[in-house]
Amino acid sequence: MRLAGGLGRLTYCQNIHPAESWAEARAALLGPTRAVKAALSPDAPFTVGLRLSAQAVRDLAAPPAQAALIRLLAEEGYEAATVNGFPYGPFHGAPVKQAVYRPDWRDPARLDYTCALAALMARIAPQGETATLSTVPGGFAADCAGDEAAVADGLLQAAAHCARLAQETGATVALAVEPEPRCLMQTTAGAIDFFARWLFDARAVRRMADLAGLSTTAAAAALPRHLGLCFDVCHAAVEFEDIPASLAALRAAGVPAHKMQLSAALRVARADAQARAALSAFAEPVYLHQVTARRGDGALLRFDDLPGALAAAEGATPGSPDGAEWRVHFHVPVFTDVAGPFSTTQDALAAALAIHRAQPVTPHLEVETYTWGVLPEALRGGPVEAAVTREMRWVLARLAP
Fold first, then answer.
1. Per residue in 150-183, pLDDT tens?
2. Using N-to-C axis directions, what is the helix angle for 384-399 and 32-40, rounded to 10°?
3. Under 8 Å CB-to-CB from 126, ≥6 apart: which residues?
4. In the chain, what are the helix, strand and coil shares in percent, each to the nearest 5?
5. Tens digits of per-residue pLDDT, 53-71?
6. From residue 85, how far is each of 14, 113, 146, 263 by CA, in Å?
7. pLDDT at position 105, please?
8. Chain mean position to CA 96
9. Cβ pair 10, 44 in contact under 8 A
């Protein structure tokens, strides 16, 4: 949806629908997405936030398949302005956990997938607008810490590909790296530092110039045009970030927020035995649910997954998170204020939207509650299309003048 007042576009991410092949992604566009459009934008174009796996991109490689996609978008009144290129393979129905970050940005498979996705977006996105492509924040830290140079070079090669696409087609595609807890870029501050040291420094400019066939001046201008952040409000809140301060820091550092994902996390004010027992319902086997715990002295304790945090809290060790405030990377509906004995980080999301309303942060806003299939029944809010419609309306209400 195009928003009034220069606030960009609002959509929801298609990664909430189980779809690995293009046929499955097409079925989602013709099913629940059609229902959401009918509810929110029946007489005007509706922005779709695509999610296309590596298999779906291969399915769409041939020109006739791409032409069919373009026809579908036109016939349904959709505008494909953004795509989620984070999950490479299956994303529903089987354990994903750390595998969602693989292949990471050291692996040529990640580069090939992203470049193919960028080329597709250059063809199907609305003319005259920048298409955005969110992607892995380097990789899972345990996998690729120490390989920053290789990660950076993969991202620079993808940015150069986007620069060449712009020269060849006139279409601009921007990569949006999405910081996430326990990843190589896990906080906004960490991402700013990574960009300063590895992606926007003089060496990176020279590398971009060589890869894209540009002058160093043109390469320096092209880098932020084709490479920036996807600011996921849930991820920032899990890291106890001050949302206004993080967004101000991005502006000051010159790192563009090409995209913002709108989601909320679980929050437990004090992790006691009762709260931990209730949290066990969220310790499901499909997704990674990173936990950050803040003790009374302000120290942060981080855990790769919720079961590990729960186990650590059972023991009375100095490193136990028992009694601390917990933020859990489990996406819950943005309209949910209280979830049983918990609250959520909805206030962080409301703060981000207030900032965007006053001074637009990004051209693309994307609701991304992908956990409908693993949420406890009481939190689902009905059929997925009805729940997503409710989420979108919640966001629209907070962006209204």
1. 999 999 999 999 999 999 999 999 999 999 999 9
2. 40
3. 79, 80, 81
4. 50, 20, 35
5. 999 999 999 999 999 999 9
6. 11, 8, 24, 17
7. 98
8. 16
9. no
Regarding the domain delimited by 4-264+345-399, which CATH topology (the fold level of the hierarchy) does it fall under? TIM Barrel (3.20.20)
Predicted pLDDT of residue 356: 98
Distances (CA, A) of 182 to 137, 141, 329: 10, 6, 11
* Helices 202-212 & 216-226 angle (0-180, nearest 10): 100
Neighbours of 40 (CB within 10 A): 17
Total residue length of the chain: 401
Q: What is the predicted pLDDT for the residue at 340?
A: 73
Q: What is the pLDDT of residue 74?
A: 98
**What is the bridge-based pairing of β-strands 325-332 and 264-268?**
antiparallel
Q: Could you tell me the CA-to-CA distances from 344 to 74, 180, 378, 397 in Å, in that order?
A: 38, 18, 15, 19
111-114: long-range contacts (C-beta < 8 A, 24 or more apart)?
Answer: 111/154, 111/157, 111/158, 113/54, 113/57, 113/85, 113/88, 114/85, 114/158, 114/161, 114/175
40 by DSSP, 3-state: which? helix
Which residues, other chains included, contact 365 with Cβ-Cβ below 8 Å and sequence gap of 6+?
3, 7, 8, 9, 10, 11, 259, 260, 262, 356, 395
Give the separation between CA 341 and CA 339, rounded to whole angstroms.
Answer: 6
Mean predicted lDDT score pLDDT of the chain:
96
Q: Could you tell me how far CA 169 lies from the centroid of its own chain? A: 26
**Chain CA centroid to CA 207, Å:** 27
What DSSP string describes 325-360? EEEEEEEE-TT-SEETTEEESHHHHHHHHHHHHHS-
pLDDT confidence tier of residue 81, bands split at 50, 70 and 90: very high
Nearest CA to 228 out of 307, 295, 172 is that of 172
Q: How far apart are CA 292 and CA 314, in angstroms?
A: 16
Q: Is omega for the bond preceding 318 within 30 degrees of 0, making it cis?
A: no
Which pLDDT value is given to residue 46? 98
Q: From the centroid of its chain, how far is CA 366?
A: 8
Ordered by start, the domain boundaries in the chain are 4-264+345-399
Residue with tokens 């997938």: 113
**pLDDT the model gives residue 316:** 63
What is the structure's pLDDT at 310?
Answer: 95
Distance of CA 49 to the CA centre of its chain: 11
The model's pLDDT over 112-125, given as tens digits with 9 standing for 90+, comes to 999 999 999 999 99
pTM, entire model = 0.97
